[in-house]
Amino acid sequence: MPPEDGAAPPHFDAAIDPNAVARQFALTMSEDELYQRTLGLYYPFLAYPPERPMVFVKFGGPEKQAEGDMQRLACDWLRQQRQRDLGCNIHVPEVFKVFSRDNTTFITMELLAAAHIKDFAKISDPITWKQNEARYYEMITEGIRLLSLMPVPPDATPGPYTRAERYIKHMLFKDQEAPVIYDTIQDLEDHLNRVAELAYDHVPGPPPKVALEKELVFCYTDFNDENFMFATDPDGRPRLYIVDFEHASFLPLSFLSYAVLGRKPRWYTGRRIREKLGPSLPQHNIEVMKRISYLFQICTTSLGLDDE
Fold first, then answer.
1. Is pTM beyond 0.90 here?
2. Which residues contact 58 (CB under 8 A, 6 or more apart)?
3. Does residue 135 belong to any structural domain of this protein?
């Protein structure tokens, strides 16, 4: 199961830990006071405390536990990658603590001094931005690729690796959430193929089937422009932060392929990821997954489950 709150990052020297003060604050602050501060807020996030922010807080339903657990895994993995490759400058905000109050779950994390990529473009020197734009989007693509190489916990199953409920959040499904929890890849594949039979019911001959990969990978699939933030290091290097892990799960690689290639990208960042990463991803399931997704969107959430 995912690590508990409160531990310092593994293999990290506390003497040079830039998050030590913020982490200590997050672990000792009043949970009740934070809860009271969030009552009535329109947006489900805030910098806290408002008078002198030290941490960033996201809050919502019980699914926030899974988001926090997946973000913590991603943060630790990319830290290890930076230790192996000093040229890597891709980060995920550290999660300090996840807790619940009255059916609301809170993720307290590192507060970033960074800008969304489009805002970063606006505040950068235009000539410098034009010269380096490709580099920034290559860093984003490399971040998605590196996350997909993360070692998979031996007891992981399709979905987020969490102590909470393991519902998959992915654009393939109706309302971007799977209707059930799948214990195995085979269970997931069987459900998709029952839906495929319905999707191709009017087509002569046996329906095409999904053939999922038999191994799981970390799939980060939310390519919203605002999920990629940049800062500049003191030495002038761009530093990328990948944020928002609500739609991150361990899934067969075809689910990452579908997120990259299955739909026309809504965001400019998605188009750049598609150009750079798309050719390296498997494409044999894309067309049938498109049909399956369309049927999911127009039908009930129980589609394909009646025979289970």
1. yes
2. 44, 45, 64, 67, 106, 107, 109
3. yes
Question: Domain containing 168: what range?
Answer: 118-308
For residue 268, the number of C-alpha atoms closer than 13 Å in the C-beta half-sphere is: 10
- From 86, 110, 134, the end of a domain falls on 110
Q: How far is CA 229 from the centre of its chain?
A: 14
Task: Let me know whether 182 and 134 are in one domain.
Answer: yes
Please indicate, yes or no, whether residues 176 and 156 belong to a single structural domain of this protein: yes
CA 102 to chain centre: 25
Long-range Cβ pairs for the range 173-179 (8 Å, 24+): 173/293, 173/296, 174/296, 174/297, 174/299, 174/301, 174/303, 175/301, 176/247, 179/301, 179/302, 179/303, 179/305
Q: Are residues 106 and 122 in the same domain?
A: no
Tokens describing residue 143:
């971040």
Give the chain's domain count: 2
Dihedral-angle region of residue 40 (phi above 0 means left; psi in -120 to 50 means alpha; beta otherwise): left
Same domain, 129 and 152: yes
What residues form DSSP beta bridges with 217? 251
For residue 217, which of 130, 156, 264 has the smallest C-alpha distance?
A: 156
90-91/238-242 β-pairing: parallel
Per-residue confidence (pLDDT) for residue 93, from 0 to 100: 98
Provide the greatest CA pair distance for the chain: 68
Cβ neighbours for 218, distance < 8 A, ≥ 6 positions apart: 70, 73, 74, 77, 147, 148, 149, 150, 152, 248, 249, 250
Q: For 102-128, what is each residue's pLDDT tens digit?
A: 989 999 999 999 999 888 778 877 887
Residue 248 · residue 220 · CB < 8 Å:
yes
The predicted-structure confidence for 206-222, as pLDDT tens digits, reads as follows 889 999 999 999 999 99
